[in-house]
């Protein structure tokens, strides 16, 4: 349920006992089993083959269902949630011209709030309980506050990446000499200063691939002064080959375990090893990378060879679907192309390790938590962690017979199979129905129309 502004009113869970589910825990000390999970005070208190409790408890029948930790999307530009599916055949330059340069300057704070709400609700509906929002729509402090407010309202867990503006977009990327917006200090000190909260802050920096090396070093120093983790887009097509951002960071002594590198499509194998040696993490946006010419191919297998188990991400819903099932399938499809000898330039002639469905679920859960620096509180079904859980039907026709549960989910699942979604013990989707989605439909459509008109661009229509 939600109010008219799209604020979620979650079902208050109290004590919840999920009985008899197939548990894909992502906790090596527990493993996979058919069993029960008890949630108390928003946390997982017990995981066992059989749990008996006394007193008041809500019992959820998990038979013929799979219980997983909620999926974690480590890189989504959530502000684009209300301008979905504009360009599934766009190249990277076309995306930048139409969305970041064309539409971005015309987003008002309310458009950002609506876009983020739409993105969050779609994510929750598909079993994503945590999103790392790479928010490069920081056109004003009001835009920042609206973006953050949406994440509080939706009920999702969010690691909010304070980025740069989409006004004067060309001056903020590819050799930019502008420092990161100073408003990140206000947000850190006054808005998101609790690193244990459901919505937390980190720094989405441009790094030496999108700004000058001097600016990159200054921005990194600011983020570390504010005690913030850092993300950077690197390995973006031919520009990534030319700039070699990771090598530059290694050379300047800035490379560290507080960094997550996004894409890495054209990041060299040597740079990937540098990342591994320094404890850095990576985010692969496989669906976008196979859909959008100009970025390069997914680096999943090369990252594994370097010793990095990557996380997974959606990137932009303006070009690809916002669920993690499509991302996992895209990563698997590209691996099959590698096996067939049809590879991109970075993969040619490599003896690369492979991954399977169980690995992909790990990338989408616990590895995502590690990349966000929140694996102490989510990412696995482990006693003591916050109860970010999803329950998926295994008896739906598209998943039968589900003999191998991980394979069935990776190859065949969709949002409709997600029956229940829980964040910190609060149920946000129940019996297949997401809270609040009906309230955002009209607002999202109106926002998209307004922004397109303001930008002087044709409004998408099916007429």
UniProtKB/TrEMBL annotation:
Recorded hits in InterPro entries, A to Z, give: Amidohydro-rel, Metal-dep_hydrolase_composite, Metal_Hydrolase, MTA/SAH_deaminase
A Pfam family hit: Amidohydro_1
Q: Name one GO molecular function term.
A: hydrolase activity, acting on carbon-nitrogen (but not peptide) bonds
Gene3D superfamilies given for it? Answer: Metal-dependent hydrolases, Urease, subunit C, domain 1
Q: Keywords for this entry? A: Hydrolase
Q: So which residues are the signal peptide here?
A: none
Q: Which residues form the Amidohydrolase-related domain?
A: 67-427
Q: Does the keyword Hydrolase apply?
A: yes
Question: Has keyword Hydrolase?
Answer: yes
The source's superkingdom equals Bacteria
NCBIfam families per UniProt: PRK08204.1 (NF006056)
Q: Which protein are we looking at?
A: Cytosine/adenosine deaminase-related metal-dependent hydrolase
* Source lineage: Bacteria, Bacillati, Actinomycetota, Actinomycetes, Pseudonocardiales
């Amino acid at each position: 349920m939600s109010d008219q502004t799209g604020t979620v009113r979650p079902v208050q869970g109290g004590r919840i006992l999920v009985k008899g589910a197939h548990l894909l825990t992502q906790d090596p000390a527990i493993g996979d089993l058919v069993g029960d999970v008890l949630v108390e005070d928003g946390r997982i208190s017990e995981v066992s083959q059989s749990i008996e409790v006394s007193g008041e408890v809500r019992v959820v029948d998990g038979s013929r269902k799979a219980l997983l930790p909620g999926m974690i999307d480590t890189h989504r530009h959530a502000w684009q949630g209300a301008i979905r599916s504009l360009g599934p055949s766009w190249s990277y330059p076309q995306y930048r011209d139409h969305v970041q340069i064309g539409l971005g300057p015309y987003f008002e704070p309310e458009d950002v709030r609506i876009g983020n709400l739409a993105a969050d609700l779609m994510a929750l509906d598909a079993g994503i309980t945590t999103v790392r929002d790479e928010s490069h729509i920081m056109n004003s402090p009001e835009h920042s506050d609206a973006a953050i407010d949406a994440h509080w309202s939706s009920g999702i867990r969010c690691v909010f990446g304070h980025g740069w503006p989409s006004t004067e977009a060309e001056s903020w990327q590819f050799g930019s000499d502008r420092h990161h917006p100073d408003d990140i200090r206000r947000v850190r000190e006054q808005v998101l200063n609790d690193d244990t909260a459901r919505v937390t802050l980190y720094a989405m920096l441009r790094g030496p691939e999108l700004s000058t090396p001097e600016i990159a070093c200054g921005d990194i120093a600011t983020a570390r002064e504010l005690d913030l983790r850092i993300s950077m887009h690197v390995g973006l097509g031919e520009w990534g080959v030319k700039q070699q951002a990771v090598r530059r960071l290694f050379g300047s002594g800035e490379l560290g375990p507080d960094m997550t590198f996004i894409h890495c499509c054209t990041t060299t194998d040597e740079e990937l090893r540098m990342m591994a040696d320094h404890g850095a993490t990576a985010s692969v946006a496989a669906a976008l990378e196979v859909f959008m010419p100009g970025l390069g191919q997914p680096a999943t297998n090369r990252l594994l060879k370097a010793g990095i188990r990557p996380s997974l991400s959606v990137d932009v819903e303006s070009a690809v679907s916002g669920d993690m099932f499509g991302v996992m399938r895209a990563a698997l499809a590209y691996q099959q192309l590698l096996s067939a000898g049809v590879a991109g330039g970075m993969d040619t002639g490599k003896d690369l390790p492979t991954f399977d469905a169980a690995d992909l679920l790990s990338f989408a859960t616990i590895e995502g938590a590690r990349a966000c620096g929140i694996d102490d509180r989510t990412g696995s079904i482990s006693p003591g962690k916050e109860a970010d859980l999803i329950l998926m039907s295994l008896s739906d026709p598209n998943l039968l017979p589900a003999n191998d549960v991980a394979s069935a989910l990776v190859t065949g699942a969709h949002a409709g199979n997600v029956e229940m979604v829980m964040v910190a013990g609060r149920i946000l989707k129940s019996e297949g129905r997401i809270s609040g989605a009906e309230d955002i439909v009209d607002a999202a459509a109106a926002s998209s129309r307004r922004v397109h008109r303001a930008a002087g661009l044709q409004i998408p229509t099916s007429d």
